[in-house]
Amino acid sequence: MDENDWLAQRFEEHRARLRAVAYRMLGSLGEADDAVQEAWLRLDRSGIGGVENLGGWLTTVVARVCLNMLRSRRSRREEPLEGFQPARVPDPIVSRESGIDPEHEALLADSVGLALLVVLEMLTPAERLAFVLHDTFAVPFEEIAPIVGRSPAAARQLASRARRRVRWAPAVPDVDLARQRELVDAFLAASRGGDFGALLEVLDPDVVLREDYGAAGASRKVDGAAAVADQALTFSRLGGPDLLARPALVNGAVGRVVFRDGRLFAVMGFTVAGGKIVEIDILADPERLRRLDLSVLDD
Question: What percent of the chain has pLDDT over 90?
């Protein structure tokens, strides 16, 4: 084995963890892969000489790349359309309903559901980095500090502020997939049947719906059972009679991959807590949908 092959092999030993770090940081599978690739390019250029802890070195590189991506994303974020609350739904990880694909296990460790990723979207880039690296991957604040350009004490404060905001995330989701399926099936049946009352039965009073249509359409955030039920009926009518919702796991929870006229139309993620649907996240951005890998669904 020559030196380049040996270096590539060493890098592959860390790829899964690096991709998990980047996905939590960015909420985007494509950007996470870009960040990991950039780490490999830097390693390939500089070599391993003088690096005592390769995993730590690579994690730092990925974190810096992700931080720059988050800052760039914030700087170019457009103002929301009048009358709409902006909504950005993170890239969903889609698996067969029978179980999570082995390739996705590292990405979904520690219950990385869409609800948590949405909360992370509300943090500043530095808060998100400090929280993800320390609370999820146990990176010491002494190593986080130089990445964000702060002292270790200030880095600790960033993570503390992030932790307080994350505590306001929805209640811990129900883990009973059978109960989740029951509620999601009831929700979809009521949507198709135009049954407003049945929708209210399965929705939490404070349910939140996010619809992300990307740059081409109006993305929105809707709060409250009545408003969400009304929007669900609108979404069902928008899809028309050829709308087909295929069962799947979305970030480890029961969800649906929706097709219209044989083409991918949307991915729906549901968060169930306390026996009710508390969050619905719909990604319908055509550009981002095209980049999703749905090969795990077989057909």
Answer: 52
